[in-house]
Amino acid sequence: MRRGTIIVILFIVIAAAVVGVSFFLRSQPPLEFTVTVSPLAGAWLRDAAASFNASNPTINGTQAIRVAVQPQDEAQIALGESAAWTRENHPAGWIPAAAVTVDFARSRGLPFETLHESVAQTPLVWGGFGDIVADVTNDGQETFDWPAVNEAVAAGPVRLAFRSPSATIDGFAVLLSGAAALTENAVITRDSLRSPAARAWLETTLLAVPNTTTLGASAAGAMAARGPTAGGLALLPESEWLTNLRGQLVNGSTPVQLAYPAYTVQFTFPCTAWDDPSVTDPAVASRADAVKAFCNYLLTPAQQANAARFGLRPADGVLSEDNAALFTAAATYGAQIELPPMAAVQAPNRSDAQLLALSASQISP
User: 3-state secondary structure string, 202-267?
Assistant: First the structure.
């Protein structure tokens, strides 16, 4: 047999083997992995996960993968002492709302590596029924923000609406914003939290919330359904307002008014993967690669535009005309396409954050 013929045959055999192996690997069940996600972006991430899985994604060219998203509030993970996650029992990936909670989790020995600092954004935004906002701001002579709200809460029966600060990250963020406004400093320190003024403010504010339990999963949703009885004013994620502009929030004679606080908490939804250097199991490394593939998918132009459909701003914070419909529709209530200048609150260390959450749990009705 001629040498050239042998080479051709060998090439065909090798090519067939490669195709066969590739077909075999692709025919295997997909590698399933779980990403725990913040409920604040849960609707978008569930939608994105369904689209991702439908695209038949692979890693390393051949390994099929399939993601399952699991909504779970990060407050207990970051601030609680219970070992909900361990080195033996944990998700492959985690997309919390706040970047600082990743640092808190790492301080507990949970080795999450940040793959992307942000896959979407949403800030805390004030909202309230128009007549109540008018009373609080003296018909607009004062800014709709913490100073006017604090004065109104201290003087009379103004009802606030926000979820449990000790059990939810959005509820806890309200306290961070208020504490920063109280000292007019975006950096929250132990001294500022332990001052008599801060303690008095904390009690007055928390007692202005009738019942955090009855607000359910969404304070804005409760206000839309029940009106001022659920709360007249609230400081909530912008995305929550935008996706709940219905019912009594818009149909009454005094619809909701939105305003951006001077001191906000910006939820940036970092995308992280479990990265334990002591584990050499190839399946663990493959799941980390799968998480990275999902994170990269969330940052594609199509998914960034899709996030805006759920009231979330893109990772870079810049809305385009093509994906700003929800924001444009809410402009009549005070929503802004381009965010105004706001100071991003810097949370205290974990021990001080735990102290704040504990104090809130002892006061909240």
Answer: HHHHHHCCCCCHHHCCCHHHHHHHHHHHCCCEEEEEHHHHHCCCCCHHHHCCCCEEEECCCEECEE
